[in-house]
Amino acid sequence: MRYFDECNVGDEFRSLRPCRVDADEMNAFARRWDPQPYHLDEAEAEKLVGRIFSSALLTLCISQKLTHECGYFDIAMAAGLGLDEVRMLAPAFADDELSLVTTITEMRESSSRPNMGIMTNSTRLSNQHDETVLTYRLTSLVHNRPAP
Known about the structure:
By secondary structure, the protein is an alpha+beta fold. The chain has one domain (4-143): Hotdog Thioesterase (Thiol Ester Dehydrase, Chain A). It has four helices and six strands. Strands 1, 2, 3, 4, 5 and 6 form a six-stranded antiparallel sheet that branches. The longest helix is centred in the middle third of the chain and has 14 residues, at 56-69. The chain starts with 11 loop residues before the first strand and ends in a 5-residue tail after the last strand. The mean pLDDT is 94.
């Protein structure tokens, strides 16, 4: 466990291994949560990008899984405060291999919660061709190390 006062702006966390986008999972997710025609129908997808692609929401979920695996959430988070500047820059297709880098970009002591800080990270999810698929910023409330 790392605490707010043990982190620094510039600390970087990288996925340990890529996550393959699974076609069946893409289809099941789209059917249940994001049934846009271009996520479910080849002809509709072809009009936009040539083939069926992942829902941005599933892609965001994949980034969350990779963020956990890379150790970023081993930091003593108290609560998420906001997800900002979400950008879907390229589609994720079945069998793409997605990798993540998240970097602490801002830190400040909390003015309303003693012994806590506010931390913001910037996350980039990219495919096997190093094309950026998704970016966002996450701000969290983080515990300082408890006093002895």
